[in-house]
């Protein structure tokens, strides 16, 4: 009998964990100052643990009523391909369905083939009616 070595835990990662997981997963770098300022604004977060080691994460940020954004979905490369991204999304979407007000707008940015995962959770491309835009400061 196989025992699942991964545990999903609700919570916000520490700044150190957050920065490490983003770096090893190939996501854009953030400064320690930005992580320290931003992480407390997590509406809901989830960590994937293997033993005591965080190997994946995902967060929801937003205003708590009208608008939410799913961010920071990542899994350490050596743990990818095991359905952990799907488990993270299941937890995050479940929490939105439990707590977010009806009619809340939930968005995310899908990098590459990640859109195929997000489509399984009901996310749709916004184009041509609207297009996502961004700016880095």
Kindly report the CATH topology. Answer: Aminopeptidase
Q: Please state the second-level CATH architecture.
A: 3-Layer(aba) Sandwich
Order of helices and strands: EHHEEEHEH
Structural class: alpha+beta
Measured distance between first and last alpha carbons: 51 Å
Average the pLDDT over all residues and give the rounded result. 95
Strand content: 25-35%
**Which of globular, elongated, flat, extended, rod-shaped describes the shape?**
globular
Précis, in short:
The chain has helices at 15-24, 32-38, 84-99, 114-119, and strands at residues 6-10, 42-50, 53-62, 67-75, 105-108.
Structure description:
This protein has 137 residues and is of the alpha+beta class. It has one domain (6-119): Gcn5-related N-acetyltransferase (GNAT) (Aminopeptidase, 3-Layer(aba) Sandwich). It has helices at residues 15-24, 32-38, 84-99, 114-119; strands spanning 6-10, 42-50, 53-62, 67-75, 105-108. Strand 4 (67-75), helix 3 and strand 5 (105-108) form a beta-alpha-beta unit. It starts with 5 loop residues before the first strand and ends in an 18-residue tail after the last helix.
Quick tags:
137 residues; alpha+beta; Aminopeptidase; five-stranded mixed beta sheet; 4 helices; 27% strand; globular
Q: How would the blueprint of this fold be written?
A:
Layout: E1 6-10, H1 15-24, H2 32-38, E2 42-50, E3 53-62, E4 67-75, H3 84-99, E5 105-108, H4 114-119
Parallel strand pairs: 4-5
Antiparallel strand pairs: 1-2, 2-3, 3-4
